């Protein structure tokens, strides 16, 4: 398979306007990836799927990654003139990187038996802008996996045919795979209609103070 | 999602062509999560027209415990025993997939003997998984008990092997980063060899029970057909993909472990129906026995673990890695991101049976309720892995 640099150059030629960035991976796995911009993601993905030399027809793994807001501290040694004398001073600069969510796709080719080509997309932020184009129209295997990302990370995929929660129940709020997720104290509590129903049911019974009023008894009976 | 009148009204009603059915009446049935043939807590919301499936929506999550989150909060090695609980039929292959990914992430080499042991254990796992799957499938078709007990008789022998090697029958926790946990004694290898040598007898027995069996043929042929195009697009892997005639096996493609050293063939189906999927398992068992025999011939002496790998304070370099293997159910992958800390920043499992369920609806539409059970059985799912 051709190198990632070459693929990047060919994508830019095939999809004009697409912004493709190499994301280096320093680990020994040497699996570098391509970050594609959300606007052209669909076209780029379609091209990767259809290009006869690449033919990445098998989207193996789709997953989300959460990158919350972080500050990167950099200490730089700077030469400064202090009191007329040149000294080496360490300066700390803080850079705030706003958080975002990321979707990572691992693509292989079943036709040519090569891969992986890893593409990733980033959302604008972690709240309102957590939106990405869905690649399910190109690779059906993303259907459930994108639903899982929506469920656990809260990325909304535009153009997904059936975007619902998949592992958590429909009424669940929040996204448990986010780094800042805290599970609620009353985790086991689920609202049920029983209390309401019992209240309504009382209208149809004759009052039974020895049973219905039982919870108001404070003193022990055989006290 | 209970059946309300609104949801029933909103459903599409396909044209009715067959005669003796309740025409135009759609009935919404919730199959599972306690249905005996859903293999765990799996639920399908099915809209039926008479007995014909018109709509099917799988409902997941009854066994969801957020395995990935737990993995992110545990050390790298701490997740190893937990991977056993993913697909609890095949703990050895789960261990291998995870160890392989971490080895990619940290650039760890594995000694030769350990690789051979891994191949042996993975193929033994494949044998027992496929055997029990066939047993369960026949169970679902109404052959209550007997075929399953045949399969379990063989599975028991392999589980005994696992127990004597790792100390546990199903939750083996056997692999480590850069090797395996305990060495196999010569007696163990001799015993395992004997079991592998005798296994073809069972495969033949099962073969005779299934291949020409009129009931099995009637229930499985032309049931749940999948086209190769759909299978590739939907990311189907494992025997289910090869039943459609697509030649893709990670053992051959990636050549991980020492698989390129072994001679084996990849069985391929033709029609992509349930019968082909079932036959894939039978044929793959034969190939696995072949791999095992070669492995027992070739296994060298030597260390079983890379001594350079730190067990405590294991911190892989910053980066990410995706490793995958051919587990008995399909492509099992682990995607790890390291931030240089003692636990993974991102720990993702790519479960084969979860992705294989993507086209469950496509396979079941137009078939009867009884066929749904056969189709689901031939997909081979384990809920520990689907829900994670």
Report on this model:
Chain A has 223 residues and is α/β, with parallel strands linked by helices. Helix content of chain A is 20%, strand content 31%. In chain A, helix 3 (142-152) links the parallel strand 8 (131-133) and strand 9 (156-158). The mean pLDDT of chain A is 83. With 388 residues, chain B is α+β, with helices and mostly antiparallel strands. Chain B has 16 helices and eight strands. The two termini of chain B are 22 Å apart. Chains A and B meet through strand 3 and helix 3 of A and helix 4, helix 9, strand 6, strand 7 and strand 8 of B.
Features:
heterodimer; A: about 220 residues; alpha/beta; Beta Polymerase, domain 2; 2 domains; five-stranded mixed sheet; two-stranded antiparallel sheet; about 20% helix; flat; B: about 400 residues; alpha+beta; three-stranded antiparallel sheet
> CATH homologous superfamily of the largest domain in chain A?
NADH:ubiquinone oxidoreductase Nqo5 subunit
Can you tell me the CATH class of the largest domain in chain A?
A: Alpha Beta
Mean pLDDT of chain B: 86
Q: Round the mean pLDDT of chain A to the nearest integer and report it.
A: 83
Total domain modules of chain A: 2
Our measurement of the CA-to-CA distance between the termini of chain A, rounded to an integer number of angstroms, reads 85 Å
SSE class of chain B: alpha+beta
């Amino acid at each position: 398979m051709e190198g990632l640099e070459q693929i990047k150059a060919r994508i830019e030629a095939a999809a004009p306007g697409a912004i493709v960035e190499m994301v280096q991976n320093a680990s020994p796995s040497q699996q570098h990836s391509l970050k594609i911009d959300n606007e052209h993601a669909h076209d780029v993905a379609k091209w990767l799927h259809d290009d006869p030399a690449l033919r990445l027809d098998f989207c193996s793994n789709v997953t989300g990654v959460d990158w919350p807001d972080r500050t990167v501290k950099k200490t730089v040694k700077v030469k400064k003139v202090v009191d007329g004398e040149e000294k080496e001073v360490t300066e700390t600069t803080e850079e705030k990187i706003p958080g975002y969510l990321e979707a990572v796709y691992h693509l292989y080719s079943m036709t040519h038996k090569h891969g992986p080509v890893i593409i990733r997309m980033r959302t604008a932020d972690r709240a309102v802008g957590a939106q990405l184009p869905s690649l399910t129209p190109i690779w059906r295997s993303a259907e459930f996996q994108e639903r899982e990302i929506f469920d656990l990370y809260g990325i909304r995929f535009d153009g997904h045919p059936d975007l619902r929660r998949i592992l958590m129940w429909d009424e669940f709020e929040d996204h448990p795979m986010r780094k800042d997720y805290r599970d609620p104290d009353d985790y086991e509590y689920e609202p049920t209609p029983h209390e309401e129903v019992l209240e309504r049911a009382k209208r149809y019974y004759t009052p039974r103070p020895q049973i219905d009023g039982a919870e108001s008894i404070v003193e022990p009976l055989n006290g | 999602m209970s059946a309300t009148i609104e949801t029933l009204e909103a459903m599409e009603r396909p044209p009715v062509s067959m005669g003796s059915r309740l025409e135009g009446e759609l009935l919404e049935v919730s199959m599972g999560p306690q249905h005996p043939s859903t293999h765990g807590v799996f639920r399908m919301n099915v809209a039926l027209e008479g007995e014909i499936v018109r709509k099917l929506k799988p409902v997941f999550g009854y066994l969801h415990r957020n395995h990935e989150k737990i993995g992110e909060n545990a050390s790298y090695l701490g997740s190893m025993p937990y991977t056993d609980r993913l697909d609890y039929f095949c703990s050895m292959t789960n261990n291998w997939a995870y160890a392989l990914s971490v080895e990619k992430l940290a650039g760890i080499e594995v000694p030769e003997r350990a690789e051979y042991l891994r191949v042996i254990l993975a193929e033994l796992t494949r044998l027992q998984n496929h055997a029990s799957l066939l047993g369960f499938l026949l169970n679902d078709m109404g052959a209550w008990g007997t075929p399953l007990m045949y399969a379990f008789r063989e599975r028991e022998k392999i589980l005994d092997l696992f127990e004597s090697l790792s100390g546990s029958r199903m939750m083996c926790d056997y692999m480590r980063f850069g090797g395996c946990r305990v060495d196999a004694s010569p007696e163990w290898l001799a015993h395992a060899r004997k079991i592998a040598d005798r296994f073809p007898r069972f495969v033949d027995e099962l073969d005779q029970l299934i291949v020409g069996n009129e009931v099995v043929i009637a229930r499985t042929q032309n049931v749940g057909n999948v086209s190769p195009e759909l299978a590739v697009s939907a990311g189907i892997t494992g025997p289910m993909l090869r039943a459609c005639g697509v030649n893709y096996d990670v053992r051959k493609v990636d050549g991980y472990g020492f698989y390129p050293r072994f001679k084996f063939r990849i069985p391929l189906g033709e029609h992509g129906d349930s019968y082909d999927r079932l036959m894939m398992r039978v044929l793959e068992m034969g190939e696995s026995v072949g791999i095992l025999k070669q492995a027992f011939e070739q296994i060298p002496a030597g260390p079983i673990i890379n001594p350079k790998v730190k067990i405590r304070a294991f911190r892989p370099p910053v980066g990410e890695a995706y490793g995958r293997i051919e587990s008995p159910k399909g492509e099992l992958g682990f995607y790890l991101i390291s931030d240089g800390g003692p636990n993974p920043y991102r720990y993702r499992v790519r479960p084969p049976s979860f992705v294989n369920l993507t086209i469950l609806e496509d396979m079941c539409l137009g078939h009867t309720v009884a066929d749904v059970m056969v189709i689901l059985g031939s997909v081979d799912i384990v809920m520990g892995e689907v829900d994670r």
